[in-house]
Amino acid sequence: MYFFNIPIMCNFDTMEHGNEKIQKQIEKIKKVTSGKDIISGIHNYCDRWCERCTHTKHCSVYQMDSRNVDEISDMDNQEFWDTLSLNMAASFMMLHQMMEEQGIDPNDIPNYEEPEHIETEAEKTTKEYSNKIVKWLNSNTETFKDVMLREGMENEAMVLAIDDAVEVLHWYSFFIHVKCHRAMHINDDFWDEGDDFEFRYHDNLGSAKITIISINRSMESLTFLLKYIPEQESEIIDLLVLLEKSKKLITKRWPTAMDFKRPGFD
Predict the structure, then answer these.
(1) Cα dihedral 223, 237, 234, 222 sign
(2) Could you identify which of 104, 145, 177, 191 might form a hypothetical disulfide with 130, taking C-beta atoms 3.0 to 4.6 angstroms apart as the criterion?
(3) Residues of the chain with pLDDT > 90: what percent?
(4) Are 160 and 249 in the same domain?
């Protein structure tokens, strides 16, 4: 069986009647998502930085497992894969139950071939930035340590600010490209010609907005670091140019992106 272009490798009947863990996970999902503080969709257009988020009590994704985020996100940890597998099985089971309620036979859903996506200039630029920022950060690890050691002799708060700027750049290094791809990936096959623009491209606009926000934060961090490592001016300016170009390309495609209201944030 296929759900769109994703193969569903499971037996729904076996799942429904033979796995107590899956049933408990379904109950947990329903309980969390129906909580009075939960804001539907808040996790769709955030930056996934749970440790710094002030809205975690409103997020069902966070509330599903509010233990140490590093521990449950470690791909070398077997618990990560067990949790992922359980959540997927529970989601498929819930999907099956909804289909039954709607009188839909899963076997009647045709295979879906997703149209080819041609990489846009914005995606190429954000990919180039991702590659360069990762290399730059890795090659300057000792430089950052030396700067923090030097500044720390006079101003401890400045050390924290420098460390924070580096952490911001690390966090968004791949995130920007991933979200840019989502913003630029358009599939009109799901929509009717009569659907209004905001509804039809809701996800693109939300993804474009969080991409631009992430770009702005990265630009602020690079500009801040330039004060303390002027010898890196050429490299930092190159990175800033890529970010500015990315933002212009995204804004050109989605000029109303920053007007998008992100659930819970705007």
Answers:
(1) positive
(2) 177
(3) 52
(4) yes
